[in-house]
Amino acid sequence: MTASAQRIIPILLAIVFLCVTSCGRIEIEVEETETEKITVVPETEEITEPTETTEPLELPERIPSEPDTLSLSDAPRTENIPTVCEVIPLADDTVTKIVQQTAYADTTAAIICTADFHWHFALFDDDGYISIARLSDERLFNADLVTLTPFDNVFGHSGVTVSVPTGANAMHRMYFALDGEEPLLLASTVKGTVAQDGMLIEQYTMGGILNLYRMEDGSVICYDLETLFHTAYADAAQVDVSYFNNFLYQEHHGLFDIGITAKDAIGYTDRFTAWLDGDVISIINNADMKLPDYTYDGTQPNNDAAAREWLNVHLGTDFVLRTPIDPTTLTGDELQAYMDEAYQAGLSVLAAYEISSDILYGAIVWSSDEPAYYVNGNTYSDMKNPVFPTFSAWESYMRKILSEDLTHELLARDRIAPINGELWGVMGTRGTDITMSESGAEVTSVSDTEIVYTVSVDILDPQNDLPWPVIDTVTHDFVYSKTEEGWRWTKLYVYN
């Protein structure tokens, strides 16, 4: 998948407020707000040192250490005081259905339905259920899809999150603080939290405006970042801001991708990356962002039983970890089996660069809470691979399969890269052409210095019903050669 396709596309959401009606019930309503633009003159000379963390990541040496800065205090903002939730006792005979409940502190939080077919988020105490918020009515609500999740340190509070699906890819979340004398609604329509320093980072758009939320002096502050960046680049005809939710960029929370369109220009003339350093947003032009320096040191892949099992499961073969042999000493089925394994090994390396670099993750689940490096359009994350403890170990693996030229060609693509010597990669996939199906492979030529391995590929017609008929068959000749380093692929590519 391309770098642009990887970027997380902002989802249009609405600002949701809880209002107390005349009858005392809490309703969910949608209200549009506008924030006036103000003139901002960023103090670009003032540099804020990175915030220390318990386990800071080392910054790449070639990434500029003095980025431009903007102060959050200069950003347009609105204040949303946490809403005090009016609790409404519910008679026992009123509660007709309980679909979910979770223990929290000394009480129980639940989703319940009342006799009037209204759904509530409620707490259970010695006097029975009390409604904290009315969510919806029976006809508009699928209670089975609601989730209740305890949280800590959201705006410095603890409580329960109520998550309600509002569409195929949309989720309405409400954060209710339950650690005080009265329940509080901290925030609504929230996608995620950063449980550090009582700060919540959130993206939502209304007319293309991106915002950042956090708690300050007892108030929820909503910052209009797009207006801030647009004011900072006053000569720009357009400023587009994408926000990568909860990514850790190096040791910094928050990660923004900023596109600047100059006046009278077609397309973007510059792209920037920004991240949070306390109250300061630090900005670097993507053109100035480089991967850290790297020197190959010859570290070898792990070669224990667990490593071999991982390779066989995720890359299809442990071919490289076996004792090298001269394939020209083999004949017949033994030679074919050897070349089949060599082809699988080579193809798995190519696929990691050309099809899906997250193949190296195997069964490891990546999380948006993990650190990320964003360099010149690519978002890298730690592969944490059990076979390749360093990038050098991965390069050693490649060198045992591919020629020097093919190895260097792949390394130059920067989809898999060294970050402080570790193995990091760009997640995602470009997919393959499903109208091509490999139908066979055979050794077609053998000499003392070269073996030709021919792969047959059927071309399928997708215009017909399944199974698609074969309308043509093509062949690809790949070359396995004897080099100074040993037998390596000198001609190999992903055919589809």
Helix content: 10-25%
The tally of beta strands, per DSSP, is 30
Shape verdict: elongated
Oligomeric state of shown chains: single chain
Q: Termini, distance in Å?
A: 14 Å
Total of domains: 4
Average pLDDT confidence is: 77
Report the β-strand fraction as a percent range.
35-45%
Poorly predicted spans = 1-65, 192-196, 204-208
Widest β-sheet, arrangement of strands:
19-18-23-24-26-25
Q: Report the major sheet.
A: 6 strands, mixed
Helix and strand content put the structural class at mainly beta
Report the radius of gyration as a whole number of Å: 28 Å
Give me the number of helical elements.
6
Structure summary:
The protein is mainly β. The protein has helices at residues 3-6, 225-232, 305-314, 332-354, 391-399, 404-411, and strands at residues 16-20, 26-30, 68-71, 77-80, 83-84, 88-89, 95-104, 107-114, 118-125, 128-137, 147-154, 157-165, 171-177, 184-188, 211-216, 219-224, 236-243, 248-249, 252-253, 255-262, 270-277, 280-285, 371-375, 378-382, 416-419, 422-426, 436-446, 450-460, 470-483, 486-491.
